Amino acid sequence: MPNDSWNRGADYVQPAPPEWFPRLCDANTRSVEALAKTVRALADVDMNALAAARALELHPNTVCARLVRLRELTGLDCRRYHALTELLLALACARP
Q1: Contact status, residue 18 vs residue 43, Cβ threshold 8 Å
Q2: Rounded to the nearest 5 degrees, what angle is found at the Cα of 92, between the Cα atoms of 89 and 93?
Q3: CA atoms of 56 and 33, how far apart (whole Å)
Q4: Phi–psi pair at 5, nearest 5 degrees
Q5: Whole-angstrom distance, CA of residue 60 vs CA of residue 83
Q6: What are 43-70's pLDDT values in tens digits?
Q7: d(Cα 82, Cα 77) in Å, to the nearest integer?
Q8: Is residue 81 a contact partner of residue 88, using CB atoms and an 8 Å limit?
Q9: Could you give the CA distance from residue 96 to residue 88 in angstroms, rounded to a whole number?
Q10: Confidence band, pLDDT 50/70/90 cuts, at residue 94
Q11: Is 87 in contact with 75 (CB distance < 8 Å)?
């Protein structure tokens, strides 16, 4: 008999997005994907906000304002690895 202890409770576990997920999706849609583009650019340049601003061809203050907005929406600081990873995954899930 195979050991299926790893499967116990699987019927009861349901994926659940974080409570901030709908707010992030709504704000990202209203910003014409600007928030998602900022998060992805920040990841592409190893969390360097100035380099992200250059990559997006934006003023650094614009990128900083978006990071503040993301923190207000989610409670996550995009300049921290785990928070940035969580945001990247959430935004990937929101893609059609």
Answers
A1: no
A2: 90
A3: 12
A4: -65, -25
A5: 20
A6: 999 999 999 999 999 999 999 999 999 9
A7: 9
A8: no
A9: 15
A10: confident
A11: no
pLDDT band for 7, please (50, 70, 90 cuts).
Answer: low
Which residues are within 8 A (CB) of 48 and not within 5 positions of it... i.e. 6 or more apart?
42
Query: Which two tokens mark 5?
Result: 């202890």
Per-residue buried b or exposed e for 8-37, using 16+ beta carbons within 10 Å of the residue's own CB: eeeeeeeeeeeebbeebbebbeeeeebbbb
Contact 44, 55 (CB under 8 A): yes
What is d(CA 64, CA 84) in angstroms, rounded to the nearest whole number? Answer: 14
| CA 67/CA 56 separation, integer angstroms | 14
- The whole model's pTM is what? 0.82
**If 0-12 CB within 10 Å is exposed, 13-18 middle and 19+ buried, where does residue 38 land?**
buried
